[in-house]
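Is this the right way to post structure tokens for a design question? Let me know if I should format differently. Anyway, here goes:
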């Protein structure tokens, strides 16, 4: 059994191979003169663990090509971040269910799929092969312990992320809550913890994805107004689109903590150990 990966998941794939005590297959990635992607793999086993986050359109196409190149009936796909998963329903007539379209394409040529903190568990049903989802909430919590914050308050940006916040908080037995949004006027919105008070506390806002950073930047500014001592942001998938990181820093965030499901400069947590454990259970 060997590991193989797309270009944008090479750091996680290397850590995963190490955790599984195996090697990463060499792949040469290139393009035809018209821009179409091409790849050619090194020596494969009968069983291959294919690792590739869908972080953009190129990485999706590369993953489709890689799965096809690993031509065997025993391949497992690790999809650390599944782009397009947020369009998981037809919200308006005429729209695609993008998560379903991507899931169908990626199911062809693999026998099993592992996702990580997928946006909605229902997306797993769109795959045509068995698919399981793992959560890195405990890994995020373990990393927060290394910050040595005194009695931190773990906050979800909304009630939908409360269970994730609860699981993160369980790593240290910390308080957790979610931010409630109250509309004060047509243009003014207040965000404050639903039950607890942020005054004089170190707060860590946790979510599955940080995309534009808008939600957390707004929450951070308001938490400082409410007397918070420090505000940190932690997530599994650091999409960080546009100037998200800059906006977070401008809102006083002391540190952005992400995992390597999307490989970033702030990917201080590796998903490798949890993925390796899940693969061993399969
Ligand atoms: C939304 O459903 C997700 O869980 C995140 O809360 C969202 O993607 C964050 O978006 P942004 O960083 O753009 O505020």
């Amino acid at each position: 059994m060997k590991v193989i990966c797309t270009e944008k998941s090479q750091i996680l794939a290397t850590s995963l191979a190490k955790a599984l005590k195996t090697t990463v297959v060499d792949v040469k990635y290139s393009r035809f003169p018209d821009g179409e992607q091409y790849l050619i793999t090194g020596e494969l086993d009968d069983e291959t663990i294919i690792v590739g986050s869908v972080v953009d359109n190129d990485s999706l196409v590369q993953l489709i090509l890689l799965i096809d190149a690993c031509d065997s009936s025993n391949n497992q796909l690790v999809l650390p971040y599944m782009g397009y998963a947020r369009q998981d329903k037809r919200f308006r007539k005429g729209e695609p269910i993008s998560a379903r379209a991507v899931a169908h394409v990626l199911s062809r040529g693999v026998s099993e799929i592992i996702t990580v903190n997928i946006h909605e568990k229902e997306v797993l049903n769109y795959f045509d092969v068995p698919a399981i989802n793992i959560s890195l909430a405990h890994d995020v919590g373990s990393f927060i312990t290394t910050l040595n914050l005194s009695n931190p308050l773990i906050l979800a940006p909304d009630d939908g992320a409360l269970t994730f916040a609860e699981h993160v908080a369980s790593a240290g037995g910390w308080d957790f809550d979610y931010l409630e949004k109250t509309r004060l006027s047509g243009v003014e919105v207040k965000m404050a913890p639903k039950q607890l008070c942020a005054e004089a506390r170190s707060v860590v806002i946790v979510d599955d994805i940080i995309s534009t950073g808008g939600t957390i930047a707004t929450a951070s500014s308001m938490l400082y107004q409410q007397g918070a001592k420090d505000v940190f942001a932690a997530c599994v998938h650091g999409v960080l689109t546009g100037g998200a990181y800059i906006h977070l820093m401008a809102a006083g965030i002391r540190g952005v903590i992400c995992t390597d499901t999307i490989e970033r400069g702030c990917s201080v947590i590796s998903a490798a150990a949890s993925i390796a454990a899940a693969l061993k259970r399969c």
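Format looks fine. Someone answered above. Worth noting: The pocket of ribose-5-phosphate is lined by residues 157, 207-215 (CB under 6 Å). Residues 58 and 264 are 17 Å apart (CA to CA).
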